[in-house]
């Protein structure tokens, strides 16, 4: 009698809702741990954590996962949820009824729903925070152009190979203002924006009858070899005149970056370079007039102050 009863549809449904509830709880716990590993901000974390994040999620310069990492973070839990509903459909359908009959079951389901909402909200906040950290707004939180102190410092030596095969230097550009900035090809966050800001200022001032030059020194001479400079110039949309991407041998590029006091940190495992959106405004005499991290309005106003 008892054996026969255990195999009735009602008995199977009774056991399946327990499995379904346990599965939902496990899914929430594992997803929370997985998302925390991928998204929780950690400064100066241990090497094993950074290696694990890179291997599992392909961490970008912003600290967020790359496309493959996001597919795993979102698609994995959704796939597990689909398997749970497909394999224990009766138990899942029975959960609402069990929640009406049991405060414990209702409390567990409510906790899972609220926890999932908090998890999604936390992930969204982390993404927003990371994007703000690598986005250069029009003022970038810096002083307005009128408040920037004029430096009038002698420019350090800079003589590197340009994407057109000619060696370019600040000294050879005397007679016109120069915007000097730093970027690298694999950067998909702040670098394209910094370069575009400089080119936008150049175009804006050219429309007003003023010619300025733009120099972009690579921050990644290991990968941005001289043979790749022309493709970088094309990708960034550099005009035919008065704008160059500069590179060269690793040692000489690094010497230039050191001479210009460019803060940077290179991840030896991934090759990614962390750096500020630094721009030097150099006057027609070849002296450093200003340093800035602002957008086009700030940079244009600083050139106007020369």
What is the CATH architecture term of the largest domain? 3-Layer(aba) Sandwich
Structural classification: alpha+beta
Average pLDDT for all residues: 84
Strand content: 5-15%
Instruction: Assign the CATH topology of the largest domain.
Output: Glutaredoxin
- Helix content class: 40-55%
Summary of the model, kept short:
The protein is 52% helix and 13% strand. With 306 residues, the chain is α+β, with helices and mostly antiparallel strands. It has two domains: 2-134, no CATH class; 145-304, Glutaredoxin (3-Layer(aba) Sandwich), CATH 3.40.30.10.
Describe the 3D structure:
This protein is α+β, with helices and mostly antiparallel strands and 306 residues long. The chain folds into 2 domains: 2-134, no CATH class; 145-304, Glutaredoxin, CATH 3.40.30.10. The protein is built from 10 helices and 10 strands. The chain has helices spanning 2-6, 9-39, 47-57, 67-87, 89-101, 103-134, 190-207, 229-236, 250-259, 296-304, and strands at residues 153-154, 159-162, 167-169, 178-183, 213-218, 243-247, 265-266, 273-274, 279-282, 287-292. The radius of gyration is 28 Å and the shape is elongated.
């Amino acid at each position: 009698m008892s054996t026969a009863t255990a195999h009735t549809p009602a008995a199977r449904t009774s056991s399946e809702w327990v499995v379904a509830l346990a599965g939902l709880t496990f899914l929430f716990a594992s997803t929370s741990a997985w998302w925390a590993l991928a998204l929780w901000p950690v400064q100066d974390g241990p090497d094993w954590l950074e290696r694990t994040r890179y291997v599992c999620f392909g961490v970008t310069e912003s600290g967020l996962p790359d496309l493959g990492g996001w597919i795993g973070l979102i698609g994995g839990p959704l796939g597990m949820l689909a398997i749970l509903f497909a394999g224990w459909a009766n138990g899942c359908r029975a959960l609402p009824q069990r929640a009406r009959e049991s405060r414990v079951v209702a409390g567990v389901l409510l906790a899972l729903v609220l926890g999932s909402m908090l998890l999604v909200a936390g992930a969204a906040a982390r993404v927003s925070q990371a994007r703000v950290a690598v986005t250069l707004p029009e003022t970038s939180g810096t002083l307005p152009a009128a408040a920037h102190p004029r430096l009038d410092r002698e420019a350090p030596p800079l003589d590197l190979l340009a994407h057109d095969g000619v060696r370019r230097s600040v000294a050879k550009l005397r007679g016109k203002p120069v915007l000097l900035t730093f970027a690298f090809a694999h950067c998909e966050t702040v670098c394209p924006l910094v370069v575009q800001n400089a080119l936008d200022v150049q175009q804006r001032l050219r429309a007003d009858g003023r010619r300025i030059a733009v120099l972009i020194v690579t921050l990644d001479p290991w990968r941005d070899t001289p043979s790749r400079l022309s493709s970088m110039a094309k990708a960034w949309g550099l005009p035919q005149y008065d704008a160059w991407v500069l590179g060269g041998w690793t040692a000489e590029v690094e010497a230039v970056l050191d001479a210009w006091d460019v803060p940077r940190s290179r991840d030896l495992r991934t090759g990614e370079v962390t750096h500020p959106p630094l721009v030097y405004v150099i006057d027609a005499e070849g002296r450093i007039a200003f340093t800035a991290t602002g957008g086009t309005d700030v940079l244009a106003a600083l050139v106007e102050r020369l």
